[in-house]
Amino acid sequence: MQLGPYTLPNALFVAPMAGVTDRPFRKLCKRLGAGYAVSEMVTSRPELQDSLKTSRRADHSGEPGPIAVQIAGTDAQMMADAARYNIDRGAQIIDINMGCPAKKVCNKWAGSALMQDEALALQIVKAVVEAAAPHGVPVTLKMRTGWCADVKNAPVIAKAAEAAGVQMLTVHGRTREQGYKGFAEHDTVAAIKRAVRIPVVANGDIDSPHKAAEVLRHTGADAIMIGRAAQGRPWIFREIAHFLATGQALPAPDLMEVKSWLLDHLEDHYSLYGEYTGVRSARKHLGWYAQSLPLPAGEAAAFRQRVNALTTAQAQLDCVRDSLDAWAQAGQREDHLIQEDWKLAA
């Protein structure tokens, strides 16, 4: 898939998620099969651009390109300045956030709230495209199907954005009113794909290889974007890639593979956040990993309790290492017992 001057290795994208898709997580997802990942949302407010939180979100050290940065705001000039600011710091693609449903974002008329004001939304799009064009940086747009069920104006905005120079559209198949409740519908995505010539990416409720194939068939989209389903399961991208290429399900990863990925993820996480913040912010990732693994009943909850009580990086690493080793050994014992039962039955 081509996006401006960049040829993306595949059509499997990581969705921008605040507090989740930081540099360590994006790097791991790309390592495990994602062809493209967008940064966490970065504010366009200049007084916050030098804050520690924003500087971490804008950290792309060692991340394979292209580097895509999502910006959010309500003022066209401020958004244009934010685009230039991030381009100067390494952004190779600028994504405009018109899809975030969070109240703290929408209450300031940013994110998906912009879909209520089509004139302002288009003004922002034009300003960002104009700011990025001299640098040869493509601008993309992520949005919802509309503000509410009665106002699904994503197709209108999509056509206007394409005319203004946006080079790719991502559509989450829910309205702002839905948040993350109910089910994503992809009919609107399909309608947008038929209406525009630029690449269209389908997002929402894609949580398995079979669902990925189904959404691609239904929408005709050029790519799919995965968010919550990748939390604790970054290997979903290689599973989907394998299924789309072969029609066969890829076996679940070996626990020793997961151990290696998880430990690498933690080390990279600590390097970005430092020990104190890193240990605490890693807890949610570890909880998601435990939920994704085939563990004995109650073990995921017990693991989270152990991890949440730890306050040093070394203790957290040791806990992860010891737990994965114990789970792997328990699985081997279970496999051995099953094999013995088969022998006896034969």
N- to C-terminal separation? 53 Å
What is the general shape? globular
String of helices and strands = EEEHEHEHEHHEHEHEHEHHHHH
Q: Give the overall pLDDT as a whole number.
A: 89
Tell how many strands the DSSP assignment holds: 10
* Percent range of helical residues: 40-55%
Strand order of the largest sheet: 3-4-5-6-7-8-9-10
Query: What is the alpha-carbon Rg in Å?
Result: 21 Å
Q: What fraction strand?
A: 5-15%
Structural class of the secondary structure composition?
A: alpha/beta
Low-confidence stretches: 105-109, 335-346
Alpha plus pi helix count: 13
For the largest beta-sheet, the strand count, sense and barrel status come to: 8 strands, parallel, barrel
Assembly form of the protein? single chain
Task: Provide the fold topology.
Elements: E1 2-3, E2 6-7, E3 12-14, H1 23-31, E4 36-43, H2 52-57, E5 68-72, H3 76-88, E6 93-98, H4 103-106, H5 118-132, E7 139-146, H6 154-164, E8 168-175, H7 187-195, E9 200-203, H8 209-219, E10 223-226, H9 236-246, H10 255-273, H11 275-292, H12 299-308, H13 313-345
Helix pairs in contact: 1-10, 3-5, 5-6, 6-7, 8-9, 10-11, 10-13, 11-12
Question: Explain this structure to me?
Answer:
The protein is α/β, with parallel strands linked by helices and 346 residues long. 49% of the residues lie in helices and 14% in strands. It contains 13 helices and ten strands. Strand 4 (36-43), helix 2 and strand 5 (68-72) form a beta-alpha-beta unit. Helix 5 (118-132) runs parallel beside helix 6 (154-164) and helix 10 (255-273) runs antiparallel to helix 11 (275-292). It starts with a strand and ends with a helix.
